[in-house]
Design goal:
Strand order of the largest sheet of chain A: 2-1-3-4-5
Largest sheet of chain B: 6 strands, mixed
Radius of gyration of chain A: 25 Å
Distance between the termini of chain A: 28 Å
CATH class of the largest domain in chain B: Alpha Beta
Low-confidence stretches of chain B: none
Strand content of chain B: 25-35%
CATH topology of the largest domain in chain B: Rossmann fold
Shape of chain A: elongated
Largest interface: A-B, 24 and 32 residues
Strand order of the largest sheet of chain B: 6-7-8-3-9-10
Mean pLDDT of chain B: 89
Shape of chain B: globular
Number of strands of chain A: 5
Radius of gyration of chain B: 22 Å
Number of strands of chain B: 14
Largest sheet of chain A: 5 strands, mixed
Oligomer: heterodimer
Helix content of chain A: 55-70%
CATH superfamily of the largest domain in chain B: P-loop containing nucleotide triphosphate hydrolases
Structural class of chain B: alpha/beta
Structural class of chain A: alpha/beta
Number of helices of chain B: 10
Order of helices and strands of chain A: HHEHEHEHEHEHHHHHHHH
Number of helices of chain A: 14
């Protein structure tokens, strides 16, 4: 136990005495979260749509067919009650729900006016806006066609509802994304660099020639960075809550617990990287290439995963950030509870166990 | 029982085509409480040997044991009993002297207090700087700190890999005095050095070159085995002198030693006038020739040429 305490203490000395790096670690999340407050535009293809068709008449079917025929949408399910809308969104695959009221065509023919309700999942506000715009223009097309060749002008107005994020705050999407990115960067890269540094400055030689057990070494190396990453989570949450007005709708405790789980996954990744890299530079480069890029590209917060080609969609499953991103979005923005994110949590837990086992097995008790 | 036993160790690096034999069939024994020196130039294989004995590398062939424990099978036991000071400074530059020592004491499951008497004589010299970071110490101070760290858990065997490389002459002398003191405490010490003049400080030395041990004996015996007389020669133009001496038909070897060149002749010819004449023919001025006692380096040079 004494060994463990002094090792962790030593690790903290390293961190706190390297002022520049410490400043970067503390400031980076704040700067990034503010920078990323500006949203990026996304292209939407084959967004999954659920339809609640209470009318089931010629007009509603025609509109549904047009939506399905367009390359932007894909009618993936039919739902029958109002209650199912929420469930459809919670499944995570549905971007848009289209609702027709009973007697849609009748109302259109008799009063020349009818309404279609478009409900979008606005926790990803850019996508939501784009989806709504595309759907509205398809409905307008239909309306134009109906009006062609007749004196009467029929009017179909889309009634729009944004679920989860009615004010369409772009930052909502980026807070979970930046959290995933920062944590991967700090937890994984710093841990791998910290271990490889011991190899580089030769202290590893002496530590190996000591009775210190490898498991103890690994754990005491990881603990300070787990702690530091938790500090980062808290600063990110404070900055986004106070400056960017992003609400924390779910349980804060659950959010922190899930973050801790993700940090452990990231640290395990760093440990694994340290087992096959020899210099700090190598470890840094590897962390950047193998962790940052997949997090950015396949994590789901810059480019919607559903719009990717299948092989990439498949690959995104092995990116831990993807799962964490889903969890944070659900807990923080949609306000869901553990029962809705347990699957994602289980994936992260499984990844951590696997990575830790690999890095422990591959830990070299000798120099080469 | 021998403290260290090395039997026919072989260690190679690199792929088959450019394979380098770092250790080529190395064998020797070190007695309990002995101060044993491995003397050899850079690249002789000293560090590889140390790493095998400290369980950091695996030998390809042969076996070795430290305090009766096999370096491959019983590595955990050796790690409890050995003190190791690698060639490069192995402390933490950003920790203070005291923090470094405390850290290494603790990971060896002991404390500074428990073994203070062992390191006292050395630690006292760096104690005035105990709150200074190790990175800001001079080379000699760093060596002392590293030695303290290697000693703090009272090892039975101490491995010092080139402890005096990069250290000034005064600190080097001090260092050897410290090693003599440690020897008195019954600690077996295996030390390597590229400096031949340090050989005389050891109980026994092994002269090493290109992964092979050329000779193992006490420093006195190694010198005694050097049978031929040595001439110490100097003149105004030392570099030209060296070349001319090497050209001299009766020269077996000639090497530069500080202010003088050490000359060994093929057949013992006590007549120095022939050489003098030869040198005067080559227009050397202020020539001085006298016989001198051989030192370890002469022996090493001779062994090298024979191998």
């Amino acid at each position: 136990m004494k060994q463990f305490i002094i090792f962790v203490k030593k690790e903290f000395y390293h961190i706190f005495r390297d002022r520049k790096s410490l400043l970067i670690i503390i400031m980076m999340p704040i700067v990034q979260i503010i920078l990323f407050g500006f949203a990026l535009t996304n292209e939407i293809k084959n967004s999954n749509v659920a339809v609640l068709d209470n009318a089931k008449d010629e007009s509603s079917r025609a509109i549904i067919q047009r939506l399905d025929a367009s390359r932007y949408f894909n009618i993936s399910r039919n739902i029958s009650t109002q209650r199912d809308i929420e469930a459809a969104f919670k499944s995570g695959t549905i971007r848009l729900v289209v609702v027709f009221q009973p007697g849609f065509r009748q109302s259109l023919l008799h009063t020349n006016h009818a309404q279609v309700q478009l409900i979008a999942d606005a926790s990803d506000p850019n996508t939501a806006t784009t989806v709504i715009n595309y759907a509205s223009s398809i409905i307008r097309d239909y309306q134009k066609e109906m009006n062609a060749g007749t004196e009467t002008s029929y009017l179909v107005t889309p009634e729009i509802r944004m679920l989860y994020n009615p004010q369409l705050k772009g930052t909502f999407n980026f807070v979970p994304g930046v959290m995933a990115m920062i944590l991967i960067l700090i937890a994984a890269m710093m841990t791998s660099v910290a271990i490889v540094r011991e190899k580089e400055i030769n202290t590893m030689e002496v530590i190996l020639v000591s009775p210190l057990r490898p498991l103890l070494f690994i754990i005491s190396k990881a603990i300070p960075y787990i702690f530091l990453s938790l500090v980062n989570v808290i600063t990110i949450l404070i900055v986004s809550y106070t400056i960017l007005d992003v609400p924390i709708n779910g349980s804060l405790l659950l959010l922190l617990a899930e973050s801790l789980l993700f940090i452990i996954t990231a640290v395990s990744l760093g440990l694994m990287i340290s087992t096959f890299t020899k210099t700090q530079q190598e470890a840094q480069m590897f962390s950047l290439m193998a962790l940052m890029l997949p997090t950015l590209l396949l994590g789901g917060f810059m480019f919607p995963i559903e719009s990717m080609p299948l092989p990439l969609q498949f690959m995104s499953n092995i990116v831990p950030s993807k799962w964490y991103f889903l969890i944070v979005k659900d807990v923080m923005i949609k306000g869901l509870g553990f029962s809705d994110v347990w699957k994602e949590s289980l994936v992260l837990l499984g990844m951590s166990v696997l990575l830790l086992t690999i890095s422990f097995k591959k830990f070299k008790i000798r120099l080469s | 029982m021998h403290a260290i036993v090395v039997n026919n160790i072989v260690k190679t690096y690199g792929a088959k085509k450019e394979m380098i034999k770092a250790l080529d069939d190395v064998s020797f024994n070190v007695q309990q409480g002995e101060l044993f020196g491995i003397i050899g130039p850079d690249g002789a294989g000293k560090t590889s040997l140390f790493r095998i004995l400290t369980t950091l590398l695996l030998p390809e062939q042969g076996s070795a044991s430290v305090e009766g424990f096999d370096v491959v099978k019983d590595y955990k036991e050796i790690r409890k009993r050995a003190g190791y000071m690698p060639g490069k400074f192995s402390g933490y530059q950003d920790l203070t002297v005291e923090e470094n020592l405390e850290f290494f004491a603790t990971i060896f499951n002991t404390s500074i207090k428990a073994n203070y008497d062992l390191v006292k004589d050395i630690y006292i010299q760096i104690e005035p700087f105990k709150d200074r970071r190790a990175g800001k110490l001079s080379g000699g101070m760093k060596q002392k700190l590293a030695l303290c760290c290697a000693l703090i858990h009272k090892p039975a065997v101490l491995f010092l890999d080139e402890p005096t490389t990069g250290v000034d002459a005064v600190s080097r002398k001090e260092f050897w005095v410290m090693l003599k003191d440690l020897k008195k405490q019954g600690i077996t010490i295996l030390v390597s050095t590229p400096y031949m003049d340090e050989a005389s400080m050891c109980d026994r030395v092994a002269l090493m070159q290109s992964g092979k041990i050329m000779s193992i004996d006490t420093p006195e015996n190694i010198i005694r085995n050097f049978k031929k007389p040595i001439w110490s020669v100097r003149a105004d133009e030392m570099y030209r002198l060296l070349n001319d001496l090497k050209q001299y038909p009766n020269t077996e070897s000639c090497n530069s030693f500080g202010e003088f060149h050490h000359l060994v002749l093929k057949n013992d010819d006590p007549d120095q006038h022939k050489i003098l004449n030869y040198l005067e023919e080559h227009e050397h001025k202020n020539i001085s020739i006298k016989t001198t006692k051989p030192n370890i380096e002469d022996c090493f040079m001779q062994l090298m040429e024979h191998h």
